Amino acid sequence: MHADQPPERTPDGHHVVIRGRRWRATDPSVPEETAARLRRHLMSARRAVRSATAADDEQAERAAQSRVNRAKIALGERGAPWWEQSEEERRHRWEEGLKSLDAEDAED
Fold first, then answer.
1. How far lies 58's CA from each of 49, 52, 70, 101, 108, in Å?
2. Which of 36, 58, 79, 107 has its CA 20 to 30 A from that of 4?
3. 21 part of a folded domain
């Protein structure tokens, strides 16, 4: 896989395969603009985990890991499988996840 190519997907489309390992795919029904915003939150939270770990700050690390988890749930990569949810449940998942992450950023 080259950086400009999307990862391989399983035949059912539910997972991507990266270096031989299956990972749950992002819910394809998440609008691209929303998915991009959620990915920015995810990357920011991952950087915060790394910084907190380096600083040996367990409280900050737990908070950052919680943000990572919320972003991944909103993207459909964790939690209830998106292919088993109704369109309404899926929309609610990403809208509430984004609202929560945006609100937390506004507090900082």
1. 10, 7, 18, 20, 18
2. 79
3. no
Is the CA virtual torsion 75, 77, 79, 82 positive or negative? Answer: positive
In a domain, 17, yes or no: no
**Between vectors from CA 32 to CA 85 and to CA 83, what angle results, nearest 5°?**
15
Domain total for the chain?
1
Q: What is the pTM of this model?
A: 0.90
Residue 77 domain flag? yes
What pLDDT tens digit does each residue of the chain (108 aa) get?
556 788 899 999 999 999 999 999 999 999 999 999 999 999 999 999 999 999 999 999 999 999 999 999 999 999 999 999 999 999 999 999 999 999 988 776
